Amino acid sequence: MKLSKKNKTRVNKLWKNRNNKQRSFIIVVLLPTFFAAIYYAFIASGQYVVESQFSVKGNEMQQLDLLSGIAGVPSQGGSATDSYIVQDYIHSVDMLNALSKNIDVVKLFNPEHADWWARLGAKTTQEERVDYWKKMVTAAYDPTTTIITLTVRTFSAADSKMLAEQIIQQSEWLVNQLSERSRTDDLAFARAEVDRAEARVSKARKAMNEFRTANQNLDPTQSATAQMMLIGELEGQLAKAQTELSSLLSYMGADAPAVKNVKRNIKALNNQIEYQKNHLTGTETNNGETALTNVFAQYEPLLVEREFAEKAYTSALASLESARVEASRKHRYLSTFVEPTLPDEAIEPRRFRSVITVFLASLLVWAIGLLGGGIIREHVGWV
Questions:
Q1: DSSP label at 102?
Q2: Digit-coded pLDDT (tens) for 219-262
Q3: What region does 146 belong to: left with phi over 0, alpha with psi -120 to 50, or beta?
Q4: pTM to 2 decimal places
Q5: Distance (Å, rounded) from C-alpha 325 to C-alpha 319?
Q6: How far apart are CA 284 and CA 279, in angstroms?
């Protein structure tokens, strides 16, 4: 509709009669608010919102840590970590790509009845699709209640419900994967420790067997004990023979046959005791046998290694059994207690609130610009 020459003259006159402040108010505040009102009243397509709530649960025992105890909030441990992971996963490109295998996401957000401003657009980059996805699909995790609230917006009630169901299904798959990976990693580590401890025990036992074969001695400890007992018996016999010699010399001469026999017996006992002691503590006996002290120098490290390896193996077996129990107990799952439902009407965009928001934002920009302009003019006047 064209204005007549008279009306144009009147409009120009009215515009010229306005001061700069009024003109800027019209341009910065009234025009954006007018266009926003036209868009939200006649152009903006309705968006159907589906909201669902779920939580990542685990059957592990909850514990109170110090900070959580002060706050009065139970520590969620791994479940809280998985909840944050699920929240980030819902907003990620991986979720978008996973859903795109079964759903044409680009087509879903580009229906014919949707306005050009709200729709995704046919030719978009991956970054643009992710940014649009984060605007239309949001997930908020509340650490106090451990609840994840999923909100899905599309231009169709059926699409919103279907998309929310697909997101929950994919999130449940992720939680199962995280739980299975955690249990598998724990068991794999425990089994690796058992295998390592078992190999160490086998090596220690093999070294011990080789030592026994080389030295022809099953247990140097028992051999040493028997050696000490033998030396003790010989020393007892020597003491008895010396007592007998003293008794004989009290009434016999040194050349008496009985005295000579006792002296020969004492000499033999001394030789035997010296031989046994040399065999016990010397370097090598007259027969070329290795002394027990040298045998012990080789045996004791092998014995310590074998005992330590056996204890480590026992401990590793106990850890493996504990890991099995913990793995069966450490199972997490996604529990949905508010299912997606089919919405009856499009509740977004909030048309009146959006227009008011545009008006207030424009008014704020206008006021800041007016204040800034005044400061600049005063500054120029001072100069």
A1: T
A2: 666 566 666 676 677 678 778 877 777 777 777 777 777 777 77
A3: left
A4: 0.61
A5: 10
A6: 7
